[in-house]
Design a protein that fits this description.
Layout: H1 2-18, H2 21-46, E1 51-52, H3 61-74, E2 79-80, E3 86-88, H4 91-103, H5 126-146, E4 151-159, E5 173-181, H6 191-204, E6 208-217, H7 230-264, E7 272-279, E8 283-291, E9 293-296, E10 308-310, E11 313-327, H8 343-346, E12 352-365, E13 367-375, E14 378-387, E15 391-394, E16 412-415, H9 419-433, E17 442-446, H10 453-525, H11 534-552, H12 554-568
Parallel strand pairs: 5-6, 14-17
Antiparallel strand pairs: 1-3, 2-3, 4-5, 7-14, 8-13, 9-10, 11-12, 15-16
Helix pairs in contact: 4-5, 5-6, 7-9, 11-12
Amino acid sequence: MNEWFRKIGERLKAVWGKWTLVQKLILTGIVVAAIVAVFVFVRVSSAPSMVKLISTPIRNEDELRLITSRLDSEGIPFEVGENNVLYVKDEKTRARANAILIREDLIPKGTDPWAVFAIDRFTVTDFERDVNLRKSIIQEVTRHIESLGDVDKANVIIELPAKELFEADQKPVTASIIIYPKPGSDITTNRKKLEGIQKVIQFAVAGLKPESIVIADQNGVVLNDFAGLEDFDRLERTKREQQLIQRLETQYRAAVLKALQQIYTEDRVRDLNLKIAMDMSKKSIATREFFPFIEQPDDPNTPFYDAKVSPSVTRSSSQTNYEYQGTGFNPEGPAGVEGQTSPAYKDMQNMVGTAKQTQAITNNEINERNIQEDYSPGIDRLSVSVNIDGIWKWKYDDKGNPVVKPDGSIEREYLAIPAEELKSAEKLIQDAIGYQRARGDSVTVQNIRFDRTAQFKEEDGAFARQQQVNVIILSSLIGVAIIMIAFIIFRVIQRNLERRRRMSEEKRALEQQMLRENAIRQAEESTIEVSKSVEERKRLELQEHAINMAKDHPEDVAQLIRTWIREEG
């Protein structure tokens, strides 16, 4: 076997050696293309197949556009296949998308998101259909709950009892849900989120009532016991009410403090006490008002009120008149029989009488208004108190210097705020808070001294240090002035001594020069021949030239001599 492989390899090498470069490149390209095709085939075959979002095609283009727009806004990838069938990448995405579409009421009519019932068998019994229905409901409710951002996992059990003949024997539909919250979620304490899950389950299962739903966490704690949360809700409501009151107090306090501190500075108005009493109860007030008719409105162009007002208008009226005039008649009974009329009335027979009666009834109408108002919440009372400090001023003597006490502190004078100014500040606060005397509001503005002991101590220490610095600076200036004067005097004396020394040296040099000239003159006179070198002759000539210059320009020569002496020194 190995020999056969060896021969095959030698034959391939021989063939490869006979091929040209073009043939080798073509074979290499074919091999690479085959490898790439195999790799692509493996990747495509191993890729997960997409699942249907909605099993039935969407016929309405508007509904398809709304669904795709909503999926795009949620960032859910999808594809539209033949006959407008939507596909998503996996079951988890399908559950999330279905939850969003159901919540937004975007599931088209006639479509069914449950693919469990797509069974093409003829041997399915009613029991199997009920079991499949129950499984489908549980599966979809579970996916719906798990698609929520606060739930990591959910276990759902829904009991659908068989229908009974009599309603009294019918067992209720029940549901039990265990949710596993995601880390950092507040779903276990957020009542609105729990009510949302309860409503989702209630509306997803027909005949399910809220009292038949139990939602618990992974520890078995019942979360939807809303009846037991009444005290908690009351505390939360009270907490929110207190937060509202504190927010209003902060706003009023900031507004009043800003107005006062701009006038009296922050140091004089440090704090303000404000208390708001609010009635958080909801009130409904029904009012019935009666008011007159305005037949002609007031003319604004006239300086007087010329409106015509009528308290009422006549709606209906009736009038009755009755008149009687004639002889009075008292019947006594049948003919031939004596009547029973008393003697007093018998005397009134055959008398003429007159009767008149008038009755008038008028029905009037007035204007009526019925008002229904709701008040909640409302401010019952506002109380504000603020203290404004006066002004402390230093006392000065006749020279304009602060008066210092024996203990080193500065003597001060306190200027209180006048009563008229306090009244003005009180009026300012009343306007800022909307003061209502009938409501019982109270505003108090007082002038009470602040304790400024620490401030005065710091000011006294700073003043004392400043005085010490002033003394030190003055002493230093005097010392520097003395040193400068001494230095000037020293320099004057030094220059005078130096001038005297230069003058003595110049005098000595002139005397020596004169002695040398006398000696030379005596030597010339005595005809003494002195052998002189070239350098000596030059030196003598230079000396003679210097003597001549000294005679002609003595000041320049003196300055030159000073310069030489200074350089040599």
